[in-house]
Amino acid sequence: MPITHLLARSILMELEQDPAKNFIEEEKLVLIDTDAGTDDAWAIFMCLAAHHDPKIPLKVVGLTCVTGNTAVDNVTVNVTRTLQTVGEANIPIFRGSESALVFAYDIGDDPYHGKDGFGDANLPPVQPTLEAEHAVNGIIQLAELYKGNLTILALGPLTNLATAVRLKPEIKHWIKDLYILGGNHSGK
């Protein structure tokens, strides 16, 4: 089941438990941590559709970028392109970790999402619009700002999140929900 469906399901389960809840007051504040290949772009599009729908209590408060499907600089371009596609210019984007913490990440010679993460489609150049802070600091700042109310949707490697927790362990208690898109293709 796609991770965005799990998030929507969580909201619906809350509604079923208490149909009288006013969800406008209890909207999900979502930080998306992504390695922005084509799969993540679709997840971001779905979250942005919810973000713009007044009937859905979801607000995307930031996107953090990490190396994974492609290099982090490609990820920042892909995230910027995704936001520009829907005319969204007010959600902060943070550039994050370039490498893994433990093992080197190798996307191989023929990466699934192409070398640029978007299928090597030769799209027009886009200048990323980034916050000055590193993604790790962005995670810490947003977790503190929305203490107890922040949902993190982790679509890529967990390097940014792991580093943020290492630097400021108390953020573990400030995050309301954490959804992780995790997988393995080689059984290791």
TrEMBL record:
One of its GO terms (molecular function) is hydrolase activity, hydrolyzing N-glycosyl compounds. It holds the Pfam family IU_nuc_hydro. Residues 30-186 form the Inosine/uridine-preferring nucleoside hydrolase domain. Transmembrane segments: none annotated. InterPro entries: Inosine/uridine_hydrolase_dom, IUN_hydrolase. This is Inosine/uridine-preferring nucleoside hydrolase domain-containing protein. The lineage of its organism: Eukaryota, Metazoa, Ecdysozoa, Arthropoda, Hexapoda.
